[in-house]
Amino acid sequence: MAQEHAHSSAVERLLNCEVPLRAQYIRVLFREITRISNHSLALTTHAMDVGASTPFLWAFEEREKLLEFYERVSGARMHASFIRPGGVAQDLPLGLCRDIDSFTQQFASRIDELEEMSTGNRIWKQRLVDIGTVTAQQAKDWGFSGVMLRGRATLKVKWWAYPSQPGVCWDSRRAAPYDVHDQSDPDVPVGTRGDRYDRYCIRIEEMRQSLRIIVQCPNQMPSGMIKADDRKLCPPSRCRMKLSMESCIHHFELYTEGFSVPAPSTYTAVEAPKGEFGVFLVSNGSNRPYRRKIRAPGSAHSQGLDSMSKHHMPADVVTIIGTQDIVSGEVDR
Amino acid sequence: MNSIEFPLLDRTTQNSVISTTLNDLSNWSRLSSLWPLLYGTSCCFIEFASLIGSRFDFDRYGLVPRSSPRQADLILTAGTVTMKMAPSLVRLYEQMPEPKYVIAMGACTITGGMFSTDSYSTVRGVDKLIPVDVYLPGCPPKPEAIIDAITKLRKKISREIDEDHIRSQQENRCFTTNHKFHVERSTHTGNYNQGF
Hints:
The structure holds two protein chains of two kinds. By secondary structure, chain A is mainly α.
């Protein structure tokens, strides 16, 4: 859903469209759910590559609960197509916030269980500490973002620092806040040594911070519209479409031709769980984009694999790929 | 007192004899322990991984994921196959020993899926490359759907006849090369970074 959010934000920025507040809170809620879901997959498959196979089974059960939330709100477990330009597709169903609440109450203990298996483990530390070290300058040169970039700074600062200092505390949610991120108040975890152990700890800590945001969001969410009011952009509801002629025309126009986006271009990036996911959208005024380039974090991170694995053993290469959180689908499309 | 005694039908003795054919026995043993190759290129692999997880456990069907194609007898092509990946997929399939089965998982591997209209690099369907036994639609198919495909494949295997298999083995030999091994001078010089 982070990728849907990036594309929708790019379109909204070109259209200069205002997203209602409730939709923004729903977007933030589901983006943080995505973040937890991604980190539980990335960390535990990485652990499986290193050799620890138990966290994989534990984390995937938690992931199934999160995929159930996706399915309840959008109908699909993975490709939700829920965050759309102008807002979100549908409102949250009844009972979802209650179930999210019961999930959050037990999830912190699950993260503790995952940490108990790995963080203090001698074997884990030997495999991860001082492997795949990246200096701050290297990280900026290669275009790393997200957890790869934050693995190198002073530990757990609260206020973001502009990345001209040797440590890089760069989080797009803080540096260029979009939606309602400036109202929830997460800490941004950063690491000290830039090795894989730091990145592992940062991902665990990010899961905890995302949990905090997920707890705050349903409490702060106002009631209201979940799509922008402009019917030239967002389709009307189906019952409205069957009763009113104008709604029927809007529905038809939107689903056959779509809406036109004014001419200039934009680059919009969000803090996807894997890094900075950007969409460069160039429009020529018609209903189809002239160019849409996706800047995927995996393609920048995988370039750094060679320099990160120098003077390490071949077994470390596998786990360096795991810590970079690469998805080959976004590297080589 | 004229009744004939049938000791096998007597309920107090245990039935310790099962009668079957060799064909059925080999089919049963094969379908009960299909070992899939841990193969995944794209989003379908995430649902395949959910299948390995504990909620939709596929070990209860006998499936243990194997990393090497030499040890696998099922390949679930999970994910889009691009033209760059196609030779690798064919090579993996050829390296699997007979008898082997293929489940084409997800819309991308059946017909090209969402990439079937405009893509410049996607193979439109994995059956252009390797023979497929079961087609499993979905984008991605839910783990329950994958289990359904595996169940259908098991039923298909149970209907197999050994003579057909032996005949097809003799006909469809894959291309192999003759390896000529020469013993060369050792390249071990003790330096870490060395050129050739």
